[in-house]
Structures are given as structure tokens and as C-alpha cells.
Amino acid sequence: MTASLTTASVADAKDQPAAVRRRTAARRWLSRVPYVVLAGYAAVALVGPLLIDYNPVQADLANRLLKPGAQLSSGGTAWLGTDGLGRDVFAQLVYGARTSVLIGISTVVVSAVVGTAIGVTAGYFRGWLDTVLSRGIDILLAFPAILLAIVIAGSFQRSVVVVVGALSATAWISFARVTRGTALSVRERAWVDAARVLGVRRRSILVRHVLPFAAGPVVALATLEFALVVLAEAGLSFLGIGLPSSAVSWGQTIANGKQYLATAWWISALPGIALSLLIVNIGILGDQLTARFGRGGLR
Question: Which ranges does the record mark as transmembrane (predicted)?
């Protein structure tokens, strides 16, 4: 009995590393799923509109409310069906991906540049400048971000630039708060004190000794903000604010299908699924980057 137990223990000890390796490999492959999904969205956004000839304004009432896979009057196939005006839902998904990616990247870049500049400046110089900027951020945080975006987008003529500006009006705050905290910590480090003693210019200190430590948190935050921006843009488009009628957005497609939910569910459901899949994978990627770079290497 003792010998058999010993043999079983040895066998378990040999099998355990293999099992651990398999679980590690599985987790590694699962962690790459968001990269694959986001790469697919990026490819669709960049290449899809070049391959699909589609006019988002032109209606074709002869092909309205066709089910997915139905035959068009022209002889083609509506792979994902058509909406209430006969427009192809698959083409709207492809063009909507381009709109979401374009607005998301533009808003995140603008917000990151503005927020990082303000946050690093306030955190490093402190004093009255930090006080004024902090109080300004507190005032902006008192207003709901989506409400402020609705007010700004509704006050101007509808365009992509207006939507980017409306979403950037509050998105920069998160970048400013993160980089301000990083600058407050880094400015007390020995190498920064040494640079000041040696007479290095403040601009060089900010660029060479402070900003590199803010890069990690900014990249991690950018992924999460991208998801929020895409969702907010869909919300504005759903309300009919911001983008012109000639632009295609998932939010507009979802809004166009809300009156046909009982008879033509695919009009709203398919863009909703595409939007949800994108948001979930960006969130997972953001969590991974936050765990890796969230503290900016300040340990």
C-alpha cells in the first residue's frame, strides 16, 4: 500500500508541471484574443470601405426589410439583411466600423496630448498653477460627460470634427489626473533633483525625466478611453446628434431599426453585437495593459 501511494505521488508530481504548462499556455492564448479581435476590426475599418461600393444615403425600397441571406432584386445577396429603406446592413457595419475607429483614435489622441500636457505641467510645477488646474478639473467633473457632449454636439453643425471636439471636452480629464499623479511622484526622485542641481532646463527635465514614466499609464488609460469614446459616439448617433446623415454609424443603424425590432431584429441586433464585442475586447485589453503599465514602473 505504501509503495503504491509513493508511486502515485511521484506520478502526480511528474504530471503537475505538464498540467501547469498547459494551463499557462491556454491563458497565454486567451490573453491574445483581444489583439486578434481588435486587429480584425481595424482591418475591416481600413480595407472594408475600399472593397464595398456603398452609398449610405441612397435608398432602395424594393429591397427593404430583407432577411439575412435573402436575394436582392439586382441579383446580389444581402448577407446580413437590409433596413427599412433597403440599405445593406453588412455595408453599414463595415462603414460604421471605420467611423467608430476614426472618431475613437482622433478623440483619444487629442485627449491624451492635452491631458498629458496639463497633468504633467500641474504636477511638476505645483503651486498656484496646480491649484487652478485642479479646481478647473473638479468643476468639469461636476457635469456628466455625456450630457456635456450632447450640449456641445447639439450646438454646432453636425460633423466628425464636432463629435471629436465634444467627446474630447471631458475625455482629457482622466489623462490629466493620471499624469499629474505620476509627475508629483517623479519630481521628488533623486535623479530629478540632480538634474535641477546641474542646471538642466525645466523643459528638458519634463521631457527626459518625467514624461517617460507617464507613458505606461497613458497607454493603458488610452485603451479604456477608446472604448468609452466609441460607446459615447454610438450614443450620440443613436440620438441623432453630431454626425451628418451622410456618415454611417452603428448608433444610427441601431436607431433606424428600433421600430422594426419585432419584425426585423437584425437591423439593430447585429450592429449592437458588433459594438458590444468591440467594447468588451477593448476593456479586456485595457485591463491587461493596466496590470502591466498602470503604475508606470514606479516601484
Answer: 33-52, 101-125, 137-154, 160-179, 210-243, 263-285
Q: Quote the cell numbers at residue 107.
A: 478623440
Distance (Å, rounded) from C-alpha 38 to C-alpha 13? 40
Dist. CA 34–CA 32, nearest whole Å:
6
Helices (H), 32-159: 33-51, 89-125, 127-141, 145-154
CB atoms within 10 A of CB 201: 10
For residue 142, which amino acid is it?
Answer: A
Contact between 74 and 66 (Cβ < 8 Å): no
**What is the percentage of the chain residues whose pLDDT exceeds 70?**
90
**Per-residue pLDDT reduced to its tens digit, 37-69:** 989 999 998 898 888 888 877 888 888 999 998
User: Which residue type sits at 235?
Assistant: G
**pLDDT tens digits along 76-89:** 888 899 998 889 99
Residue 72: DSSP 8-state = P
**Which strand (E) or helix (H) includes residue 78?**
strand 77-78
Distance separating alpha carbons of residues 217 and 116, to the nearest angstrom: 11
User: What predicted TM-score, i.e. pTM, was given to this entire model?
Assistant: 0.83
Which secondary-structure segment (H or E) carries 201? none
Q: What does 128-166 look like in DSSP terms, one character per residue?
A: HHHHHHHHHHHHHHTS-HHHHHHHHHHTS---HHHHHHH
Task: Let me know: does 260 contact 84? Beta carbons within 8 Å.
Answer: yes
Q: Which residue has the cell 474630447?
A: 168
Distance CA 50, CA 48 (A): 5
DSSP state of 67: P
- Cβ burial of 155 (10 Å; 0-12, 13-18, 19+) is exposed
